[in-house]
Amino acid sequence: MLKKERHSLIIKQVNLHNKVLSADLALQLNVSEDTIRRDLNEMDEAGEIVKVHGGALSRSYHYPFKYSDVYAADAKKKIAHKAISLIKDGMVILTGGGTTMIEMVGMLPKTLSATIFTISPLVALQLADHPLITVILIGGQFSKNSQVCVGPQVTGYLNEIRFDFCFLGTNGISLSDGVTDSDLDIVQVKKSMIRSSNKLAVMCIAEKLNSSQRIRVCELSQISCLITDLDPTDQILQAYSRENIQLY
Amino acid sequence: MLKKERHSLIIKQVNLHNKVLSADLALQLNVSEDTIRRDLNEMDEAGEIVKVHGGALSRSYHYPFKYSDVYAADAKKKIAHKAISLIKDGMVILTGGGTTMIEMVGMLPKTLSATIFTISPLVALQLADHPLITVILIGGQFSKNSQVCVGPQVTGYLNEIRFDFCFLGTNGISLSDGVTDSDLDIVQVKKSMIRSSNKLAVMCIAEKLNSSQRIRVCELSQISCLITDLDPTDQILQAYSRENIQLY
DNA sequence: TCGAAACCTGCAATAAAATGCAATAAATTT
DNA sequence: AAATTTATTGCATTTTATTGCAGGTTTCGA
A221 to chain B nearest CA, in Å? Predict the structure, then answer.
């Protein structure tokens, strides 16, 4: 039994059950628990699973989305705060998902009246106690990774409507590649979202600036506003300003 | 049971009910209350929940609570458990919202493969870590009261598809009025859901049996299965059995 | 204020992990 | 092909983690 072979079997197990016990794996794969532990540690290093005492968990299981966002929470709050200033009474807005977005809608003033279309169930739920905002959840296949709706149902639906403003979070933005993402389904939806909106605001924490993912979402020229946790006068941002992007 | 696994389960409970009691968790997860307390303390440290005397609260929603208000999840668990036994591999299922429903999908065995359409964002989210179930969230206007999607978008969409089974919770069911509800938007959606499904399973806790709300959802004759927390042989249920309803 | 319930602390039993080491298996070089 | 290096594995030992329990203390709600 090759090590790689073992690893792929372990991944399968983890994906299927969301958890594995070292002892079980040792028995199944007919190696010592020490070997399994070493395997799990390597796979944890590689980010494939999360090693815990006694075994391992799938990443999605270990970090229940809602609270994984202690990460860079301050930055996201700052961004959310700036984003809100762009929203005016009566606007029809389209939003993606992500912790920053959830943070943002949670901070919307109770006196603001607007219509928000979203592909994110969490965004909708967050708005459940807002008195004046009408929420339309755009349905489709639910992507378990990103916890938003994707697929042809979503893109087809988006074709029929025009929005004032589209708010998107991103994991990659750079001068050379524009806005990029790692999941093809998401990218297709984001492209539709951008196409259907008059203006596009991209929200990005500073550390993701000038980094790229695999798949292109859009060019810099399509962005109206770039919202980061940095000061708009920050050196790093000036190159984006030259692309006709309004900085916040 | 892995410690982190327990933590994940606890977070789910907290998100679902906004609060948990240590004693309940100890029973459910089959560990001592001391262990639960240690878990809750750690999770509080990590910022995932808020520990309070007697249990824990969700971070986003921590109001003080008394010992007196214990949520009656037991009945709902029983119902959920019975409902699951109706679901077979490969089925295409439609579900409404409500805590019982969320409880149910959370308990679905990881080896079950099925397609679940739902109007409830919470149901979709609850299924995010299920390896084999395809989730389609049906979009539309998000109803803030009931936390599900309603409106013409939903009913229109439902017209196009046929489902094997529809699962609905209800607040009112009686011999004279059939299934009833208090929210017109919801009722319209429920009617569509029933029309699009071959079979209808209604889930109802015992105390709601033989009670009526304002607006009619459907006749008893349209119900295939009635799932309660009572024993199917219970006296109260026999009248329903005479209506050709299968009792669970 | 009182009694019950929940809490905390330290302790012991058990289980899992880390570490160092030797044996074997693969890969690489000569 | 032989020799050398490197990687992998299992085992023994030590260290750490997890858990339940006993006890004394605090908190809660009536």
Answer: 31
Note the pLDDT tens digit of each residue in B92-106. Answer: 999 999 888 988 998
Separation CA A46–CA A27 (nearest Å): 24
Over residues B34-48, the mean pLDDT reads 92
Based on the fold, state whether residues A148 and A223 are members of the same structural domain. yes
Which residues constitute the domain of residue A97? 68-247
- For residue A71, the model assigns a pLDDT of 66
User: Smallest Cβ distance to A67: which of B11, B130, B136?
Assistant: B11
Closest residue by C-alpha to C1' distance, nucleotide C25: A2
Which chain B residue shows the shortest CA-CA distance from A141? B136
Per-residue pLDDT tens digits for B109-163 = 878 999 999 999 989 988 887 888 999 999 999 998 889 999 999 999 999 999 9
> DSSP assignment, residue B148?
E
> Which CATH number belongs to the domain containing residue B178 in this structure?
3.40.50.10470
Strand D contact with A27 (CB < 7 A): no
How many domains does chain B fold into? 2
Residue A220 Cα to chain centre, angstroms: 19
Distance from CA of A174 to the nearest CA of B (A): 31
- A128, A230: one domain: yes
Residue A176, judged by CB atoms within 10 A of its CB (0-12, 13-18, 19+), counts as exposed
Q: Which nucleotide C1' is nearest A22 CA?
A: C16
Paired with A92 in beta bridges are A115
Asked whether residue A161 falls in the same domain as residue A53, the answer is no
Mark whether B42 and B89 lie in a shared domain.
no
DSSP designation for B128: T
Cβ atoms of A21 and A13 closer than 8 Å: no
Residues contacting B85, CB < 8 A, separation 6+: B248
CATH number of the domain where residue B15 is located: 1.10.10.10
State which H helix or E strand residue A153 sits in: helix A152-159
- Name the interface residues of A facing B (CB cutoff 8 Å): 15-19, 21, 50, 52-55, 57-58, 60-62, 64-67, 70, 121-122, 124-125, 127-130, 134-142, 144, 147, 149, 153, 157
Contact flag, residue A5 CB and nucleic strand D, below 7 A: no
Burial A106-123 (b: 16+ CB within 10 A, else e): eebeeebebbbbbbbbbb
Same domain (yes/no): B55, B78 = no
